[in-house]
Amino acid sequence: MNNTILDNAKRWLSDTFDTQTQQEIQNLIQNDPKELEDRFYQDLAFGTGGMRGVMGVGTNRINKYTLGKNTQGLSNYLKKVYPNEALKVVIAYDCRHNSDTLAQTVAEVFSANGIQVYLFEELRTTPELSFSVRHLDCHVGIVLTASHNPPEYNGYKVYWTDGGQIVPPQDGEIIAEINALDFSNVQFEANPKLITNVGKEIDEVFFNASVANGDFKAAGKEDFHIVFTSLHGTSITAIPEVLKRAGYTKVTIIEEQAVPNGDFPTVQSPNPEEPEALTLALKKADEVGADMVVGTDPDSDRLGIAVRDQHGKMVLLNGNQTMLLMTKFLLDQRKAKGFKGNEFIASTIVSTPMMQTMADAYGVECKVSLTGFKWIAKMIKDFPEQDFVGGGEESFGFMVGDFVRDKDAVTSTLLACEIGAAAKARGSSFYQDLLECYTQFGHYQEKLISITKKGMDGAQAIKDMMANFRSNPIDSLDGVPVVRVEDYSTGIATNLLDGRSEKMDIPASNVLIFIAEDGTRMAARPSGTEPKIKFYFSTNATLSHTADYDNAKDQLHQKIDRIIASLNLS
């Protein structure tokens, strides 16, 4: 075993750590060096969605000591940045195992550092936490969640004064403060006077804000039937009430999944991106003749939507499709009132290019960021003179306006229902409206492939895969020459037709995008929250009539499948 890893582990045998932790470390040293290696070969770092990891002892795990050290470093950083202010933080947590106790530990460390803490008394959604940062005029917000990761995971998201997640250079500066600490520097002795429980009073304001931003007085609400599942997560605390306040009376809740449970016992994965997660809801929808199914992930920032297609069958839409129709609906609402000329929508580099095409058609700007809603929140902060309409990313996230500064399944669920109810009332449907988008702006189809590579060896394998793509770049996609390569690690885009390069005005990230002459795209990106490498494919064609959609869709997906096979990714 690497001596550095062993030395790191032995530091956890000191009196800084409790007896149970010391005993577990000693047992791993003696009996399971491979597991010990995985727990100590690195420190958990902030990725696209905060810090996530498997729970357990070790520097590469989520536990009271790693989160305590994070919180101590963040406390020190806050005192440097705001030296003469009375500091305030708000903390929320989701349904995962240990989320409540870890949240309490984080609150105690903040209070031990003289910082006023508002701690939600029970589990709450991530969008409500983001909203609460500005509502309570806090300097920082924390939510304990691992989003849609498996049950053994937990995580730590940090939000700044604007309600958006931390971005460079703050994240690097905070990490530097954390890395400068020893675990013995963490102040765990709480000051109970500085910890205040909050709950229903914040709920009331948040629910009203969600309705104000997501309710467009759609016709036909009383005739629109929704099946909703929280997938054992936090959205049960918010979405049913928001739908009720907006006037929806036909809402069927999947009771088997309504009780928060960190084991997520009825699904393989609590991820609405996975069709299996919505099996119970889809079955119920057919039983009751529902118009729409909505499912959310454990912390209620992602939403999956299923609607009836032109054949009356319930189909799960992907994140690009819901993002497109939600954005179009919001743009239509703005257009009806008259554009002011400063509006913008937002998306990410691995999401559908159709967002840009649609923005051009409406005459508004489409800003494109790296993956992660923290970058969209940063746009809102960096361009206060502009008006953010809405936007999202392919991974089933959307944000309506700027009152929440992270993806928000609560308000987005209401918006989706507004679109569906309004469409049904005029004899159309959510699905039919999407197909009309394809005839109007171009027919785009996308697909995502994720390959899991766990542990230290897996991390190296992912690194090697990205290195191979850079040293042996793709020269064609389904026989069509690649004409542009965008390498976000260097910030350089190369035109292969003339050999010219240009600097891209976007932060560095380990992403490669290959674009063919016909607009077909392939992006490769290591996940920032899971031990995976992800490949994103997009291709397009014209669609003259919605009746031709099924055949046209099949042709585009066959093209994507040929590309996947040619890259040996299937």
UniProtKB/TrEMBL annotation:
Residue ranges of domain Alpha-D-phosphohexomutase alpha/beta/alpha in the record: 45-183, 215-310, 318-437
Keyword Lipid metabolism listed: no
Single GO BP term: purine ribonucleoside salvage
Keywords, alphabetical: Isomerase, Magnesium, Metal-binding, Phosphoprotein
Cofactor: Mg(2+)
Any Pfam family the entry gives: PGM_PMM_III
GO terms, molecular function: magnesium ion binding; phosphopentomutase activity
Superkingdom field: Bacteria
CDD domains reported in the protein's UniProt record: PGM2
Keyword Phosphoprotein (UniProt): yes
SUPFAM superfamilies per UniProt: Phosphoglucomutase, C-terminal domain, Phosphoglucomutase, first 3 domains
InterPro entries, alphabetized: A-D-PHexomutase_a/b/a-I, A-D-PHexomutase_a/b/a-I/II/III, A-D-PHexomutase_a/b/a-II, A-D-PHexomutase_a/b/a-III, A-D-PHexomutase_C_sf, A-D-PHexomutase_CS, Alpha-D-phosphohexomutase_SF
Family to which the UniProt record says this protein belongs: Belongs to the phosphohexose mutase family.
Record protein name field: Phosphoglucomutase
